[in-house]
Amino acid sequence: MGVSNLKIKKFGPIKEADIDVKDFLVLTGPQAAGKSIVAKLVYYFTSLKEIVYAKQLLNYPQHPYKLKQQVIDNMKTKMFLMFGDDYFIADTEIAFTYENCESVRLVYCNNGHFSVEFSTRINNYLHIHDKEFTAPGTHDINVKDKWKNELNEVFGAFIAVYIPAGRSMTSSLGKYFYYWYAMMDDEQKNMLDYSIKGYIEEIMRIDPLLDKGIVGLHNKYRDKLPALLERLATIMLNNAHDLIKGKYYFRSGVEKLQLDSGEEIDMQQASSGQQEVVGIVNILMYYVVTQRNVLFIIEEPEAHLFPDGQRLITRLMAIAHNAGNKVIFTTHSPYILGEVNNLFYAHYLYKKGLLDLNNILISDYGVSEHNLLAIDKSTAYFVKDGIAEMCINEESLMIDQDKIDGASIMINGLFDVMVELERKNGED
Q1: Which of 18, 313, 318, 417 is deepest in the core (most CB within 10 A)?
Q2: Maximum Cα–Cα distance for the chain, whole Å?
Q3: Per CATH, which fold does 4-158+293-427 belong to?
C-alpha cells in the first residue's frame, strides 16, 4: 500500500500544497495560515466512504437521484458546511489520492461551485451499486458487510475521527449540553461546522460507556486485547491519569471528575486544560481498546496545557499511533514539536542499538518502545503564506529546529538587544 496524498491549489488561504499523508503527520505554522483547512480536507476525503455507505442504506425509490449523484450532492453540501462558499475561486483544484491510488478531484466550475471527478474504480463502484442500491432486501446484514468490505478495498480501512479546537464546550456547558443539542432540530444541527457536529456526536456516543471512566472501559475489553494492545492501553491509562490529574466518568447525563485529592466535581468546574484534553483522552482510549482502524485528526492538542501536560498528550498520541492507528494534528507549540523530535531521535537510536531503554537516565523520562515514533512513517509540514512546506530536516531526520524555535529566537533576540542597550546606557 502507498501513502495518501493531498494536493491543493488556490483554496482559502492555501495557494499551493502537496502533502503526503503519512501515518503520523504534524501540521505547524502561524495562526490563520491554513493548517486546519489541510486537516479538515483530509477528514473530508477520508470520510467519503461513510457518505457512500449511508446513501446505500437509503430506500432509493424515495429519492430522485441514483447513488453517484446522491454522493456528489452530499459532498457539495458537506463542503459548504465545513468551509462556506467563498473558498472556491477560479483555478481552484483539490485532489486526494488514497493509499491504493484511487482518487477524487474537485475542480472549480463557476459561481463558487465545483465538479467532482472520481477515479475509475470509484466510478465503477458507484455505477455497479446503482442496481444493487434499488434491489429488495438490500438492508440484509450480509449485504451491509459486503458493502463495507468493498468500500474498505476502494477507500481504505481507516475511519476518520475529527477532534476540533474548542472541544471544551461539551464540558463547559455541563449537563445543559445534552439538553441544548437534543433541542436542536436537524436543520439547526446541519448548520454546525461538519467537523464539530461529528465530534459532538462522537462524544455523545462514547460518554454513556464511561460510567466507570476509561478504567472501566479498559476492564470491559482487556480480555479481548492482544498482549501488545493490552500493554499500550495500560500505559495510556497511566499517562491519562497524570495528564488529567484525576478520573473522569459520566453518570446520569453529567460529566464528573474525581480529583487526586478525592474531591468530586462537575466537569464545568474543572480547569480549562482538563476540559480541553478529556475528550481527546476518552476518544483515543475508546478506539484503542475496541481495536478499530482510525485516522485521528486533532486540532491544537496543547490547548490550555502546561508544558508537561503537552509532553504527556504527545506521548498519548504516539501510543495511539503505535496501536495501529494514524494521527494527524495541528499545533503551534514548540513543546509538542520538541517532544515529537525527542521521540523521533529515541526511535533512531533504539533501532541503531545505541539506546538502552532500561537505562535509568532514559526510563526516568518515561521513554519506552511503546511511545517512540518512526520517522519513515511520519512527516511534518510548515504552513505559511499560503504554502505548505515539508519541514523534516534531511540530515537530522527531525523537524527543522528553526520551525520550532522561530518565535523564541525573536523573543530572545529582543531581550538580548535590551540587555545590551541597558549595558551601554549604564556606561554613559
Answers
A1: 313
A2: 94
A3: Rossmann fold (3.40.50)
Number of CB atoms found within 10 A of residue 428's CB: 4
Torsion region of 216: left, alpha or beta (phi above 0 gives left; psi -120 to 50 gives alpha): alpha
pLDDT on residue 64: 45
pLDDT of residue 140: 66
Query: pLDDT by residue (tens digit) across 16-54?
Result: 999 999 999 999 999 889 999 999 999 999 999 999 998
Asked if the model's pLDDT at residue 83 lies above 80, the reply is yes
DSSP letters spanning 206-271: HGGG-TTHHHHHHHHHGGGS-HHHHHHHHHHHHHHHHHHTEEEEEETTEEEEEETTS-EEEGGGS-
pLDDT at 294 over 80: yes
Give the start-to-end residue ranges of the domains of the chain. Answer: 4-158+293-427
d(CA 228, CA 37): 35
- Measured CA to CA, the distance from residue 131 to residue 114 in angstroms comes to 27
CA atoms within 13 A on the CB side of 269: 9
Set of cell numbers at residue 276: 480541553
Q: Which of 264, 285, 275, 330 is nearest to 305 (CA)?
A: 275
DSSP assignments along 349-364, one per residue: HHHTT---TTSHHHHT
The interaxial angle of helices 272-289 and 213-221, nearest 10 deg, is 0
**Confidence band (pLDDT; 50, 70, 90) for 212?**
very high
